[in-house]
Amino acid sequence: MTKPSVVQPPRLAVWLVNLFTPYEQAESIPGDLLEEFSDLALKSEVAFARRWYWRQSVKTIGHLILSGFRSAPWTIAGAVLLGHLLLPFGFILPEKIIVAVLRIFPVYPNYDHKNVYELWMFWVPLAIEIGWIIAPVIIGCIVAVVAKAREMLATMMLGLSFLGLRLVAIIVNRPGRVLTRPDILLGLIAAFVIGGVIVRKIRSALSRRPSPAHC
């Protein structure tokens, strides 16, 4: 059977492995997976090789997560705790900003331009909800910076612990405002992780830059 001369592993799997791979192993771990994948693709079906790559990627990520926890549990725990301490400020900050803007530029129901008032009243709740997503991204970035080389572990743990606390609050009938909505909860968790991805990508790009001595 004719096979393409160059077969690439699943891009999403490669991207995920790179996210969790320590900087000092940024070439060795993906390189080993790629080498084995290429050999397997030449000896068997490409589809089989891709399935193998996905399985190995999941195993590799799981191993890297466990290794990360074992190597720096207190760093990760401290970063997650910091994230939880910042969360109340992140939730109230968008609303505080909107209230401050309304005090400076008040819009009243009897305002001459009714369409402007209605439009403003539509955008205020929307801006607050957008702020509830942007603020957790920023918090995720802060947590990732504090966690140093374990950005993804810390932000994932922040998201999971946040979800766990919300579920406990719901069970004991103290859900609080808005945060029982599944879309908001999932959006917040995704926002934490996105913050980790942003910091990880920036650090990865900086680590690949040549030092001034080699320029």
Give an overview of the whole structure.
- With 215 residues, the protein is mainly alpha-helical.
- The protein folds into 2 domains: 11-70, no CATH class; 72-208, no CATH class.
- Helices cover 77% and strands 0% of the residues.
- The chain contains 7 helices and no strands.
- The mean pLDDT is 80.
Write the topology of this structure.
Blueprint (H helix, E strand, L loop, with lengths): L10 H10 L7 H16 L2 H26 L1 H32 L9 H33 L4 H21 L10 H27 L7
Cα end-to-end separation: 47 Å
Total domains = 2
Strand-and-helix sequence, N→C?
Answer: HHHHHHH
Rg: 23 Å
Helix content: over 70%
How many strand segments?
0
Question: Which structural class fits the helix and strand makeup?
Answer: mainly alpha
| Beta-strand proportion | under 5%
Sheet with the most strands, sense and barrel status? none
Shape type: elongated
In short:
With 215 residues, this protein is mainly alpha-helical. It contains seven helices and no strands.
